[in-house]
Amino acid sequence: MARRSPARLLAPLALVGFVIALLVVINGANSGGSSDKTGAKPAASASATPTRKQKARKARRRYVVKAGDTPSGIAEKTGVPLSQILKLNPNLDDQTLSVGDKIKLRK
Prior knowledge:
The mean pLDDT is 79. This protein has four helices and two strands. The relative contact order is 0.11. 44% of the residues lie in helices and 6% in strands. Strands 1-2 form a two-stranded antiparallel sheet. By secondary structure, it is mainly alpha-helical.
């Protein structure tokens, strides 16, 4: 009987090692490459200027209702206090809110 080559045993071990290394790399890329595993983003400095999205949010005067929206959810999304939304829209009722309705956010 012929002696078996050591490569015959090492090849499956090398394949398993490669798969494990590949999984480690993929998981590292999905976590953002950050050593902080909590998912928290670093705090912005006080001197940072507002982003374009924040500027657009402040300038918005009306909001178009989407499926599943509630007055409190709209207030949270837009950054406008719920009391102000209710004051500007006296007939606003979360039971009669329908998709496509326009809600005033600012005067």
